[in-house]
Design brief:
alpha+beta
């Protein structure tokens, strides 16, 4: 199957075409297919009608030269990786502070590009870029490296900047940033700056009241109409963070490639509820959606949302209409994600205002309720009747729902409600017409408090029928 990847910026677009290695793709059938065999690479630059094209050797040389030259330009430290014309197909030369010459040594020059070596059998292609074009090219390369499903074995090794040159970068940054403002945005320049290893200077410690504001969030990375949505929005520490703060992985797929994945169905079921309980009350702007917004979420074992990735184009453009940017965990309040296992979920903000949350890969088997259980038949029979009486006395009024509301309700040995969980969508939609949230809130002070897992519980299925009939039966497990 032919696969395309497109990384598009205002002044530069990288288009990669290739195939997936079937021997490695079996385990990724439910994910975006992996482009592991590069067949053709094209680089489109603003102001030029024809793209630069080549195979894998050309593309690898391009990304090495671009990254090496960006490091050299911003640090004033010579980087031979950007000028190695003996072993590289691509090299850069600095013309002045705002002009940079891209040179491609190829077998032939495409139409639309001029060459100074007309008598040579292999005339090089020479293209002059301004600083804005250079930064867009660097950003396109950065997007490629953030995409773990495209040539995942290709990595970038940059030479470290000599420590004594660390202070020189500030003047260059002041010189380079104005050229990019208003065209590619400061974010493009910032990504280029990240290619430079930071100077070994101890940063000033932030004040206590500044700790919680020491992270920023990238909300909507640019995505072209033909591209698969790129990169999850996750917190990225700013330079004001302390030296011991570990940067948070900004791409959800990259994060998943470095940590274990939570696949236990029972744990996924519990985390599914925690995700819903976080997002549901925070989603206040439920009108105005033209299409469903679909995201892939990464969730830590404690329920913290550590990253999200737009699944469709509308989701990438409409992230501001969701609460996801505000629900990402804050490294200032929680230890950074390192080797913690991550669970994946699919979350859909539908046009009719209904929130849907489900495991990304579904359940491998029927999940079970986590925690110790009361299994003595005599005790559970008495608790069954006690729960029925308590709920029946508290349920009054005429139901407005037209379908059964099904819940799992757990009580402790004294018959006190310890946990409840909607089992169907209508139970989510009409839970306020049941006494369950009031009963739970009276004990725990919240409708979304964590379930009581410190003592054995008896579990029951409770059904509220549109006719006003109440049914309470022993829990038989998830259907």
């Amino acid at each position: 199957m032919n696969i395309q990847r497109k990384y598009s910026l205002p002044n530069c677009t990288l288009l990669l075409e290739g195939l997936s290695d079937v021997t490695r793709a079996a385990q990724f059938q439910e994910m975006r297919p992996e482009l592991s065999i590069l067949v053709n690479a094209e680089c489109y630059l603003s102001g030029y009608n024809q793209p630069l094209t080549g195979g894998r050797e050309f593309f690898e040389s391009l990304v090495r030269a671009v990254s090496g030259y960006a490091q050299e330009f911003l640090s004033s430290v010579p980087n031979p990786q950007a000028h190695n014309q003996e072993s590289e197909l691509v090299e850069f030369q600095k013309i002045d502070s705002n002009r940079h010459r891209l040179i491609i040594h190829s077998e032939g020059a495409p139409e639309g590009f001029e060459s100074d070596s007309k008598n040579s059998k292999r005339p090089p292609i020479e293209i002059d870029l301004n600083t804005v074009q250079l930064f867009d090219l660097v950003e396109a390369v950065d997007q490629f490296f953030a995409d773990s499903q495209t040539l995942p074995e290709l990595s970038l090794e940059l030479q470290p900047v000599t420590r004594r040159y660390g202070g020189a970068s500030q003047a260059l940054i002041r010189q380079a940033v104005p050229a990019a403002v208003g065209v590619s945005s400061l974010a493009v320049a910032a990504i280029a700056f990240n290619l430079i290893p930071p100077p070994q200077i101890r940063p000033p410690q932030p004040k206590a009241d500044e700790q919680t504001s020491s992270t920023t969030k990238s909300l909507t990375p640019p995505v072209s109409a033909a591209a698969t949505p790129v990169a999850a929005a996750t917190p990225t520490p700013t330079p004001t963070a302390t030296a011991n703060t570990k940067p948070v992985v900004k791409d959800l797929e990259a994060l998943l490639n470095t940590v274990p994945e939570i696949t236990d169905p029972s744990q996924l079921r519990a985390l599914n509820r925690q995700v819903y309980n976080q997002v549901h009350p925070a989603w206040t702007k439920r009108s105005g959606l033209q299409q469903d917004l679909v995201y892939r979420l990464g969730v830590a074992a404690d329920g913290a949302i550590v990253g999200y990735k737009a699944v469709n184009k509308e989701a990438n453009q409409g992230v501001g209409q969701t609460p996801l940017p505000n629900l990402l965990y804050n490294p200032a309040n929680r230890a950074p994600i390192s080797n913690e296992p991550i669970a994946q979920f699919r979350i859909v903000f539908t046009t009719n205002g209904v929130l849907q949350v489900s495991p990304w890969r579904g359940y491998a088997r029927t999940p079970e309720v986590i925690g110790a259980k009361i299994t003595d038949s005599k005790i559970t029979k008495g608790l069954n009747q006690k729960l029925y009486n308590t709920v029946r006395q508290s349920w009054s009024g005429t139901p407005t729902f037209t379908r059964d509301l099904k819940y799992r309700v757990a009580v402790n040995k004294d018959g006190v409600i310890a946990d409840y969980e909607p089992l169907n969508q209508v139970a989510f939609d009409y839970f306020r017409e049941t006494p369950l949230p009031k009963m739970f809130n009276a004990i725990y002070g919240s409708n979304v408090a964590a379930p009581n897992a410190k003592e054995p519980l008896a579990h029951f299925q409770v059904i509220f029928k549109p006719s006003g009939t109440l049914e309470v039966t022993p829990w038989q497990g998830y259907q």
